[in-house]
Amino acid sequence: MKEMLPRITRAGVAAFSLGKPSRASRRLLLMKNDMRRSLLSLFFLAFVAKLSAQGGGSCNPTTGLAAPVPVCTPASPCTMPEPDLGVSVLTAPTQVPVCHTTKAGRPFFDDGSPNHSVDAQGVDRYACVFRPAGASRISPRPLIIFFHGGLGSASTIYNEMSLRSKAVGFDLTGDSLRSGFFLVSVQGRNLNFPTELSPQGPLHDFFYRDLKSPSSNPDVANADLLIDSFVAGGMVDRSRIYVMGWSNGGFFAQLYAIARHSTPTPGGNHVGAAAIYSSADPFNGVRKGESPSCQLNPYPKSVVPILLTSRACDYIACDDQQAQHLVYLGQVVPPGYIVTPWLSAAASLVGDPNVHWLLVRGDGPVVTSCTAPLLCPLITATMNHLDWPDGVGDGSGFDHEPTILGFLRDNPLSRTHILSPRR
Q1: Tell me, what's the pLDDT at 110?
Q2: Is residue 15's pLDDT more than 80?
Q3: Do the domain assignments include residue 167?
Q4: Residue-wise pLDDT tens digits, 130-156
Q5: Other C-beta atoms lying within 10 Å of the C-beta of residue 372
Q6: Is 24 exposed, middle or buried (0-12, 13-18, 19+ CB in 10 A)?
Q7: Residue 170 belongs to domain with CATH number
Q8: Is 270 within 8 Å of 421 (Cβ atoms)?
Q9: 2 in a structural domain
Q10: How many domains is the chain built from?
């Protein structure tokens, strides 16, 4: 979706809240946003100075940012929120998600009021939750934690993908008597992101990389709490705890899976595998030319299974040549926003032999190579980024969710992980 992406991608905010417009309408919105970008860049230097004053701007090779990304509050409001959020100033740290379908053309589901908790910083945290029928202590079910794209919403699972439909009966265990899975869609906090065009709104912080357990990154700690609280209820299969994410949520989900595959949550639980859409390197720098760099050195080690699905022409560029072409067309490509270098880094720097790549074309079919740069205009790359690969958003009929979920099913935790002592 949009994660910390430059604002041109915000044309697709409707894709995550009010319902995605037609491709023609989105094209016009993208053009309008393209005109805004030159104005937004004028605010960048002032923003960096402000961010540094808030303590979130300095970098080190151990945690990336030296402190968590600043949250929007009454005392420190976000004064340039995305226009599509419908407000001129963001003063609330979070928004309450709507946990039911609001978009025409998608199956109607209503999961009631969101799950609510208060984190260590006193911030209200929300998540939309589906609980499968039949789950019990003697028939536990898998758990998927989903992280929406930047400036999106937990309601993404109802309006922009088919995951909520499959949560009812998809076999994620290999045991037809235990079909269905818990689905928890996390609402991001309203953050003042430190990337070049500084999006402000619901995001997940993958720039402050405290991977310890417990973690001082509020978003890592919140994911830990959600997993531990659902497991404590006795109806979750501890061998099948998974994370998924889209765009900004995909960056965060990869960071979290790498952090919690070998190191358990405070409650003693591990992530079995991750499935990501349209994301790349969660450990790279924040801005080009930053000194010192926020890129981790060394990268954390992990062997967690990860399935990265991306478009052959995508806003998160498929390869270096595509990225160079998109820059030529006017896109800002932040560090780490290219897929193939991340795949190489995952193998060489993370040491993970279990990262797999599912590459799909904008009109749906699986392909084996990136789209030639000249055939990947910026508007097409952006619209591809905004279409979850279930065959509905892109109108292709190619539903890749069964493959994505099948990857998770085929990668449960080992018995060693399940027997990890709880803290």
Answers
A1: 98
A2: no
A3: yes
A4: 999 999 999 999 999 999 999 999 999
A5: 12
A6: exposed
A7: 3.40.50.1820
A8: no
A9: no
A10: 1
